[in-house]
Amino acid sequence: MTAQRDIVVMTPRLPFLLGELRRDYRVHAYWEADQLGSFFKQARQARAIVTNGVVGCPREVVDALPNLGLICVGGVGLDAVDVAHARERGIQVTTTPGVLTADVADQAVALLLAASRQLLRGDRSIREGGWERGEDLPLTRRVSGKRAGIVGLGEIGKAIARRLSAFDMPVAYTGRREQPQQPYRFVADVLQLAREVEVLVVSSRGGEDTRHLIGVNVLEALGPQGILINIARGSVVDEEALIASLQSGKIGAAGLDVFSDEPNVPAVLKALDNAILSPHAATRTVESRQDISRIVLANLEAFFAGQPLFTALPMKRQR
Predict the structure, then answer these.
(1) What is the band of 79 on the pLDDT scale with cuts at 50, 70, 90?
(2) What dihedral angle (degrees, nearest 10) is formed by the CA atoms of 185, 188, 194, 195?
(3) Most exposed among 59, 83, 148, 303, judged by the fewest C-beta atoms under 10 Å?
(4) First CA to last CA distance, the chain
(5) Is 106 exposed, middle or buried (0-12, 13-18, 19+ CB in 10 A)?
(6) Known catalytic residues?
(7) Range with lowest mean pLDDT among 15-24, 217-226, 272-281
(8) pLDDT of residue 317
């Protein structure tokens, strides 16, 4: 193994990748570092970083690696990567587009069904003997035919829309711009969208420009029978406002795969029967992990061979 094959891996949550990376590269495991000064001294020759969309790579890590030329993100989220800074340094950034779309869309629908039909409450009733005792659970609500709104009609948003349409749900959406080629109705304002729908699915990007986009006004507009689904980033939803809305009945239910301070989920949220919680697991399928690994490994091999990368972001900002 030569020093030219040194890489930094930011997180152990790459189970399909770690074995192959350690076989083919000299891996510097960031999460195992006791002293960052010593770690960066040992990793000084690293030319690539491998990470995921949640952990990303802090700017100070990038700046501590003078030979860095590539950041490989296993996923599509880039809110934890300073892409502009990487461009300034001449560092290429790759993602794994397309491979997560189906799994995240499936998770959104699963959360919606679980929240609307109170599947976990029914499961608990059986396990705890409630059904045998004649426990009378409250009536649930139908999903089919409900009006749905999607916040962010990217590739994942479109996949969610197709699935909801199969439930005979009229779909509208909001986003940075209208997409006239899409068969769904565009609503320019998220607050107006919330007023018009019964189910609101958040699939927008994270980052400061979408932070708390779903706040108290949007939740109140969604209404006491409304259901919020978030498979985007926890920062997009004002979590305190959401908890208060669920407690007070200002919205009916929520299905959440992401949270503000992962993995720390507020105890009060865990205690709510009208909240369905998932541990940021939308992409945790065997198929998606295999596809992510394949693309990350292909990009690394191309980079170290001096060949064009397969899924590189443009080095200049697209206007």
Answers:
(1) confident
(2) -90
(3) 59
(4) 41
(5) middle
(6) 233, 262, 280
(7) 15-24
(8) 62
| DSSP string over 100-147 | THHHHHHHHHHHHHHHHHTHHHHHHHHHTTTTTTT--PPP----TT--
| Cα 149 to Cα 164: distance, rounded to the nearest angstrom | 10
Output the pLDDT for position 77. Answer: 84
Handedness of CA 17, 20, 25, 28 (dihedral sign): positive
- State the pairing for strand pair 70-74/48-52: parallel
- Cα separation, 188 vs 171, in Å, equals 14
Q: CA 211 → CA 79, 163, 259, 265, distances in Å? A: 11, 27, 12, 18
Burial of 70 (0-12, 13-18, 19+ CB in 10 A): buried
DSSP H or E run through 218: helix 216-222
Give the domains, in start order, of the chain with CATH numbers.
3-97+286-304 (3.40.50.720), 101-277 (3.40.50.720)
Characterise 2 by phi-psi region: left (phi > 0), alpha (psi -120 to 50), beta (else). Answer: beta
3-class state of residue 40 by DSSP: helix
DSSP lists the bridge partners of residue 178 as: none
Give me the mean pLDDT over the 226-239 stretch: 97
Residues 6 or more apart whose Cβ sits within 8 Å of residue 155: 97, 98, 101
Integer angstrom CA distances of residue 113 from 72, 127, 216, 253: 34, 20, 24, 11
Query: Which residues, including other chains, have CB under 8 Å from residue 312's CB and lie 6 or more apart?
Result: 92, 93, 94, 299
Instruction: State residue 226's pLDDT score.
Output: 98
Q: How far apart are CA 7 and CA 309, in angstroms?
A: 16
Give residue-wise pLDDT tens across range 139-197: 999 999 999 999 999 999 999 999 999 999 999 999 999 999 999 999 999 999 999 99
Q: How many of the other CB atoms lie within 10 Å of CB of 128?
A: 11
